[in-house]
Structures are given as C-alpha cells and as structure tokens.
Fold this protein.
Amino acid sequence: MSAGSDIIAQLSSSIPEIARFLWEKGWAEANAGNMSIRIDELPQTYHSAESAVAGYELPKAYPGLEDAIFVLTGAGKRMRQIAQSSQNGMLIIQLNEKAGRYKIFPVSVDQEVDFKPTSELPTHLAVHQMMVKHGMPERAIVHAHVTELIALTHIEEYTGEENLNNLLWSMHPEIPMMLPHGAGLVPSIMPGTEEIAHATVEKFKSHKAVIWEKHGGFAIGNDVQEAFDRLDILAKAASIYFTCKSSGNTAQGVDSDLMRKIKTKFQP
Ligand code: 13P
Ligand code: ZN
C-alpha cells in the first residue's frame, strides 16, 4: 500500500492528532499553520468528477505535478478545530493534466467546501514538486508557528544558518539523526508568495526542515507524524537553550568532539 492510499485513516486519526499537537504546543494560534499530503488517488467516494466544487487557475504551472492530488488545510482554518475533525478545515485538491489549475473536493461526502486551500499553497506545491522531481519518499509537509524557533531568530546572533544550526545541534545531540543537515534558514520574506516558496524549495533540496525567520518552521516527512517530529526536535533544542538562559545559566552545549562523531555517523 502506498503512503497516500490510506488517506481515509489519516483523515480520521493522524491529521487531527497532529493538528491537536500543534495547538497544544502553542504553535497554531488563530489560523496559524498548515499541512499537506500528496496522495495517489482520490478516496473511493470521489471518483466521480461531479463531486468537485470548482476549478481555479494557479498563478503558474507545476510541471511534474500533472493530475497530482493533495489533502491539505484550508486558508484561515484553525488547527484546534481540525483537531476535532478533518471536516473542520481539510480539503482535497487535484491539479489538472497541465498542472496549472486545480479542482476542490471535500474530505467527506457530507461536507460542504466553502473555503480555499491554505494561503501557503505556493510553498506547499513547490516543495511537493521538488520532492516528486527528486523521487524523494516524503509526501507530507507541516508548517507551524513554532514559538521557540521564532524566538531564536529574533536574536541577531541566530539569524545566520550556520550559527543557528551549531546552537541547535549543541543543545540536542540527536538532531543529526532526524535532520542530517540541520535546518535551512529562509530570511524574512512576505508569506504566501512565490518568492518565499522559491527560497524555501532551495533550502529543502538539502534539508528536511526549514525555518522561516521570525515566522515559524516547515518540515517534510513520509507522513505528518514524521514532519511533526522534525519540528518538535528543533523546538526541544531551542527550548533547552532558553531554559538555561531563563534560569540565569549559560548552556554549555554538548561536547564538540562527540558532536563531530555523531554528525559523521548520521550525515549521508
Ligand atoms: P493559512 O490559514 O492560510 O494556512 O495561513 C496560516 C499561516 O500560518 C500562514 O503562514
Ligand atoms: Zn505561517
């Protein structure tokens, strides 16, 4: 079974569960955060084209994503409500044969879809396009306003990718296991734009997680659980740093010799 074909199960369990985690972590205030998963086929109930709600033009085509299908969060939808049910904010889109338009489908037969996909659709589609192009196993993307990571990028010293990664790795030696090359850092750019989508894709070519300066984090995974794990471990590292600082101490950081050995072991 492909990672996308069990989507009905994911809609009823793992998607609401991750939405709940994001809300409980405080990373999804108001409508913050979004998720998407590429699936292989429409759930059985939507095989007829009549269940499509409407067709929309994309600002550009996404070669490689012809006829691709995604389950994703709607624009302005609240994670705390998706946590109750996927019907409270998830939808399905299918791109057309030229990957320049999409149709919307509800996630269940008795749902009305009167909303559009997340405003970060340009980034989600561009990252999926890159994952398909490179034959990567990842199919899920999670974006959240990870407080600890946002806070770090408000500190001038950590607005550089190298410094930021050195800090995160030294706070949590297991980061290289889940993120062999650490996190990419995208500087402050207007969200929802092609520009931030492009900058994010460039970083995802060599990282499994990307931090948007002063905004939050994006992570990819084989499923939403794995994408969430990657944000979670980065947040843990940042929070160890802040816990030491707020107790009046300076974190020592893991021994650099040990760090080097761990990195060598896990970096491909
Ligand atoms: P959406 O509600 O459009 O997904 O926006 C949330 C967000 O986090 C934008 O960066
Ligand atoms: Zn956001």
Notes: The chain has ten helices and nine strands.
